[in-house]
Amino acid sequence: MHIPDGFINGATAAGFGVAAAGGLGAAIRQTGKYLSERQVPLAGLVAAFVFAAQMVNFPVVSGMSGHLLGGVLAAVLVGPWAGFVVLSVVLFVQSLFFADGGLTALGLNIVNLGFLGAVGGYAVYRTLLRLLPKRSRSTVLAAGIAAGIAVPLAAMGFVLQYAIGGTSDVSLQVVFTAMMGTHILIGIGEGVITAMVVAAVVSSRPDLVYGVAEYTGLRTEAMT
After folding, report:
1. Three-class SS of residue 166?
2. Among 110, 163, 198, 199, whose CB has the most other CB atoms within 10 angstroms?
3. HSE-up of residue 157 (Cα within 13 Å, Cβ side)
4. Residue range 64-93: average pLDDT?
5. 98 in a domain, yes or no?
6. Residues with Cβ < 8 Å from 59, sequence gap 6 or more?
């Protein structure tokens, strides 16, 4: 889902760049309020996992690709704002050193993958938990479903950006169909992977998982 340079016009990219910068600043402040020293290594591991997962790309339309996001996984493990920061750092490194997504499109990608993927995905996760029994097993199910939904949600962010300022001659309908068709399938895989990873971490160290404490009665280091 990395957007390359020139795929969205400069004015739109600049507008979303400003929004991404403001959101990232707020996310860093919020992360500093709850992320403990014990969770910093976990955040680093999450960043490495997301980085590796996003390097596996699937072609969508000319110049565009799809891949796993990792936003909900990051948000559940270290919190939505830290997850936003993790995704933003990963996207910056990828665009700067691996030409995976354009630098001028960095704000667009951060909004789609960081904000919609992590923060938006975590909002879906919390909503699902309100409907499920308050037990650790429910966090695994909710994380998997939320991850599956977050992928097409982030794809819809790109479709909106393309509708506002797309520079390609590919029709909006073609872009919508290609993006949603591909990312619904990717979302299924992401949901399964996210559920498996969250289940593994919850079974071994639930005290480190941000998204577990509020709904199971467990007290994590981050919540105290």
Report:
1. strand
2. 110
3. 25
4. 87
5. yes
6. 65, 66
What letter represents residue 110's amino acid?
Answer: I
Treating both helix axes as pointing N-terminal to C-terminal, what angle do 71-78 and 40-54 enclose, rounded to 10 degrees? 170
Say if residues 115 and 177 touch (Cβ distance below 8 Å).
no
Q: Is residue 2 domain-resident?
A: no
Domain count, the chain: 1
Structure tokens at 169: 């001659």
* Mean pLDDT within 87-99: 89
156 within a domain of the structure (yes/no): yes
pLDDT band at 58 (very low <50, low <70, confident <90, very high): low
**pLDDT of 12:** 97
What's the pLDDT tens digit per position in 121-158? 999 999 999 898 877 788 999 999 999 999 999 999 99
CATH code where residue 167 lies? 1.10.1760.20
Give residues with Cβ within 8 angstroms of 196, minimum separation 6: none
Residue 219, domain extent? 10-223
- Grade residue 217 by pLDDT with cuts at 50, 70 and 90: low
**3 lies in some domain:** no
